[in-house]
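Ops channel
N.P.: pipeline sanity check, posting one input/output pair.
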C-alpha cells in the first residue's frame, strides 16, 4: 500500500463518516474562529486608530495643561494650571521656527444644536479655534470655506460644522451653507462643512462646531477656559528641535522656575501612535493566548474522537495488517485523516474568523473601519490546524499501528 493509496483510503474513510467528520471539523473551526477572529478584530482596530492619526502627520505636537490626576509609572501626575488665552497668544508670537500654530479651546462637549424645529442630541462639541485649526488637526472641508482673518478679527457669528451635525440637522435634503443654526443660545451662519473623518474617536471628530476663538470666549462668559496649542513644523526631521524650542518658550511664557518641572505637557502625534501600537501588541498576545486555549480544547476533543475511531476500526486494521500493511502505513492513514479534518475545520474557521473579526472592528470603530484581510493570521491559523492534527492524530495513529493483527481480527 503506497502513500497515494493511503491518502485515498483516508479520504474515503472521512467521506464514509460524514457526521463525525462534520462535528470534529466544527470543533476545530470554533477554535480557529476565536484565534483568527480576535486577531483580525485587533488589526482592524489598529488600522482605524492609524487612520485617526494619519491626518495629524508625524510632525505635529500639542502643548496642553494636564487637568486630570492619573497614575503613570507608579507616580501621581501633577495637575497643571490651565493655559490662558494670553499665554497661548504669547507662545504663538514668540515661537521662532516658522511652524503652523493653532490655538483652540473646548467651550463644551455637550452642546445641543438647533435648526428650525430640528435639534441634535446634547453631545456636540462647541470648539473655539483659529484659521489654522482645521489644517493642523487634519480636517478637510467637503464644502464651503474655513474661518478667515475677518471672522477672527471681528469675532463674527460664523461656524464650520462637522459631517454628523450636517446630517442630523439637514439630512441631505438641504445645503447647509449659509443656513443659520443656534448653539448655546447664539445664532451662527454656517460657512463650511467638514468632510467625514473616520477613526477610533467614537465619532467626536464629526460632531464638532468650530467658531472663532474670540467668539467662543464671549460665549463662555465668566466661565474659566483652558486653551490648547497645536503646532506643525514643516519637516518631520525638525520636530525634535521644534519641541525643544517650544518647551523653552512655553516655560518662559508660564514663568516656570529654573530647576522645577514643566507646568504643561507636550504630546507628539507619533508618540500617541506608538503607544497605541504597544497597546494593540499586548492585545494580540492576549488574543493569541485565548485562541490557543480554545484550540487546545479542540485538539483534546479531536484526540478523543480519533481514539474512538481506532477502537471502532480495530477489525479493519487487523485485515489491513494481514494483507501486508506496515505500521508506518497505518500511522500515515490516521494522521492523514486527522490533518484533513483539521484543515476542513481550519478553512471554515478562517473564513468565519475573518468575517466576525471585521464585523467587531467595524462596530467598535463606529462603522468607519475598512475590511482587513490578515494574511499572516490566516496562514498562522492553517499552520496551527496542521499542528493540531498532528498532535491529536499521532497517539491514536501509533496505537493503531501497534495492534496485533490476530487480536485485531478477533475483535468484536
Amino acid at each position: 500500500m503506497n502513500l497515494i493509496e493511503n491518502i485515498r483510503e483516508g479520504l474515503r474513510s472521512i467521506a464514509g463518516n460524514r457526521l463525525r467528520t462534520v462535528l470534529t471539523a466544527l470543533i476545530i473551526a470554533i477554535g480557529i474562529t476565536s484565534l483568527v477572529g480576535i486577531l483580525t478584530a485587533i488589526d482592524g482596530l489598529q488600522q482605524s486608530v492609524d487612520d485617526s492619526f494619519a491626518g495629524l502627520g508625524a510632525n505635529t505636537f500639542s502643548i496642553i495643561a494636564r487637568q486630570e490626576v492619573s497614575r503613570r509609572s507608579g507616580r501621581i501626575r501633577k495637575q497643571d494650571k490651565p493655559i490662558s488665552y494670553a499665554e497661548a497668544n504669547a507662545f504663538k508670537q514668540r515661537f521662532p521656527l516658522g511652524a503652523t500654530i493653532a490655538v483652540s479651546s473646548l467651550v463644551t462637549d455637550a452642546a445641543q444644536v438647533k435648526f428650525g424645529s430640528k435639534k441634535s442630541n446634547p453631545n456636540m462639541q462647541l470648539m473655539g479655534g483659529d484659521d489654522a485649526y482645521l489644517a493642523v488637526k487634519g480636517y478637510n472641508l467637503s464644502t464651503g470655506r474655513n474661518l478667515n482673518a475677518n471672522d477672527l478679527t471681528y469675532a463674527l457669528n460664523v461656524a464650520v460644522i462637522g459631517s454628523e451635525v450636517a446630517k442630523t440637522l439637514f439630512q441631505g435634503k438641504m445645503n447647509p451653507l449659509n443656513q443659520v443654526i443656534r448653539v448655546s443660545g447664539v445664532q451662527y451662519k454656517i460657512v463650511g462643512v467638514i468632510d467625514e473623518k473616520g477613526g477610533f474617536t467614537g465619532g467626536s471628530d464629526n460632531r464638532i462646531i468650530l467658531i472663532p476663538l474670540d467668539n467662543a470666549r464671549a460665549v463662555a462668559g465668566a466661565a474659566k477656559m483652558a486653551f490648547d496649542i497645536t503646532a506643525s513644523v514643516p519637516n518631520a526631521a525638525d520636530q525634535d528641535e521644534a519641541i525643544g524650542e517650544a518647551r523653552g518658550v512655553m516655560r518662559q511664557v508660564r514663568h516656570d522656575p529654573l530647576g522645577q518641572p514643566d507646568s504643561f505637557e507636550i504630546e507628539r502625534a507619533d508618540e500617541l501612535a506608538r503607544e497605541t501600537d504597544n497597546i494593540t501588541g499586548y492585545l494580540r498576545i492576549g488574543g493569541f493566548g485565548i485562541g490557543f486555549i480554545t484550540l487546545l480544547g479542540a485538539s483534546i476533543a479531536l484526540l478523543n474522537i480519533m481514539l474512538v475511531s481506532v477502537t471502532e476500526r480495530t477489525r479493519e486494521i487487523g485485515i489491513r495488517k494481514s494483507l501486508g500493511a506496515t505500521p508506518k502505513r497505518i500511522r500515515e492513514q490516521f494522521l492523514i485523516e486527522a490533518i484533513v479534518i483539521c484543515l476542513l475545520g481550519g478553512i471554515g474557521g478562517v473564513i468565519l474568523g475573518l468575517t466576525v473579526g471585521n464585523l467587531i472592528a467595524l462596530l467598535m470603530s463606529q462603522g468607519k473601519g475598512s475590511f482587513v484581510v490578515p494574511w499572516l493570521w490566516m496562514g498562522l491559523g492553517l499552520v496551527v490546524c496542521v499542528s493540531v492534527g498532528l498532535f491529536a492524530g499521532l497517539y491514536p495513529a501509533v496505537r493503531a499501528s501497534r495492534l496485533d493483527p490476530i487480536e485485531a481480527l478477533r475483535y468484536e
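N.P.: looks fine end to end. The chain has two domains: 3-53+274-409, 60-268.
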